[in-house]
Amino acid sequence: MVTEFVYAQPVKILFGAHRFDHLSEILKEHGIQRAVVACDRFFSERIRGMMQDTKEIVAVFDDVEENPQLSGVIETARLAKEHGADCVIGIGGGSTIDTAKFAAAVAADPEIAERCWKGEVPFPKETLHIVAVPTTAGTGSEVTQVSVVSHGRDKKTINNPVFMPLLAIVDPYLSSTVPPRTTMNTGIDAMAHALEGYWSKNHQPISDLCAIEAVRLILENLERAYRDGNDLEARTKMAYASLLGGLSFALPKTAGSHACSYPLSEDYHLPHGEACAFTLDSFVRINADERLEYLSRAAGLKDTAELAERIRALKETAGLRRTLSDLGDVDMDKLVRDCAAHPLMQNNPVQMTEEKLREMFEALQ
Ligand SMILES: NC(=O)c1ccc[n+]([C@@H]2O[C@H](COP(=O)([O-])OP(=O)(O)OC[C@H]3O[C@@H](n4cnc5c(N)ncnc54)[C@H](O)[C@@H]3O)[C@@H](O)[C@H]2O)c1
Ligand SMILES: [Fe+2]
């Protein structure tokens, strides 16, 4: 029964195939005159080619890496300051959007980026507008106030209102070039956002609705998008599901699988989505309750057991790493210690002690 909640979603969302072709008009409409773009190598040529007709783009940082580094943030922020920009646009996957968010937040004084990252000083009061253009489906970063940035080997998730985009331009057509394995990794990340937002201790009714629809759409369309990247209907439904996934966890935050994804990415080098996928079906079984049974049925399945099985099967289809031996030499003591200590683990509805985590990982043979 709904009793009380607080809900806010401040990002304006423009959704539709080929929306991105109208970037110049969109920026003008929103009063943006001088934007720096952050992107990765894949989009570099296209963005540089657009600068002729899109006068609002004044500079490009095109070297965003997967698991983006603080050094890329600082370079983007310096470009923004040097060019007197009023906006940073992230065009790409979560790595690029998170770079753009952080750069916009420190553009007034790029030299303090490292101290902001360490939490030693607050972000400057003056920040630039953020426009997020996701090209994977995906992180949902276009509607969250989260930025995940690494400094050396240390990967840190920072949750701060300064990272909230002004605009999200979601053009599903942009995702048609994502390779199959990345399609699967990022699609399961979106599923993890929906499920973890739903079972998070901080879950709430409007986010729950987004989660149920996201899971339904992902179950229907992820394998299609994986098998045929040019299937625009499947790509569109996945882009929408990813957006809903973002809205599902933006307020409740994620839980067990995301908590485990950090050690799995840092020590065993799994990409973010694959790292979340590694434990997602295990957490479906561990967190199974009446609410999850309701979600499973509303998403078109027989029961929660079928949800876990469908996730396992998706991972198998794409050849994602699923067992302990797939990880190589595992330091189990460190793995369970780090997973248990991650702050997101506190949001998991079932308390996960080191013993329980060990049991979960040891079952993955
Ligand atoms: N801010 C948030 O709310 C949030 C949420 C979840 C994850 N994350 C973070 O986001 C990052 C992962 O983002 P991601 O999964 O989108 O991957 P990514 O941004 O790292 O991109 C993965 C790969 O896909 C390629 N790619 C992206 N779009 C493409 C396209 N349209 N065509 C061809 N190739 C394309 C990129 O070049 C890259 O090689 C991680 O650092 C993760 O921690 C952030
Ligand atoms: Fe994620």
Write up this protein.
The chain has 365 residues and is of the alpha/beta class. It folds into 2 domains: 12-174, Rossmann fold, CATH 3.40.50; 178-362, Dehydroquinate synthase-like - alpha domain (Dehydroquinate synthase-like, alpha domain). Helix content is 50%, strand content 11%. It has 14 helices and 8 strands. The protein has helices at residues 23-29, 41-50, 70-82, 94-106, 113-118, 180-199, 205-227, 232-250, 256-268, 272-286, 290-298, 304-318, 332-341, 354-362, and strands spanning 12-15, 35-38, 57-61, 87-92, 129-134, 146-151, 154-159, 167-170. The strands form 2 sheets. The chain has a 6-stranded parallel beta sheet, sandwiched between helices. Strands 6-7 form a two-stranded antiparallel ribbon. Helix 2 (41-50) links the parallel strand 2 (35-38) and strand 3 (57-61). It is globular. Fe (ii) ion (FE2) binds at residues 139, 189, 192-193, 258, 272, 276.
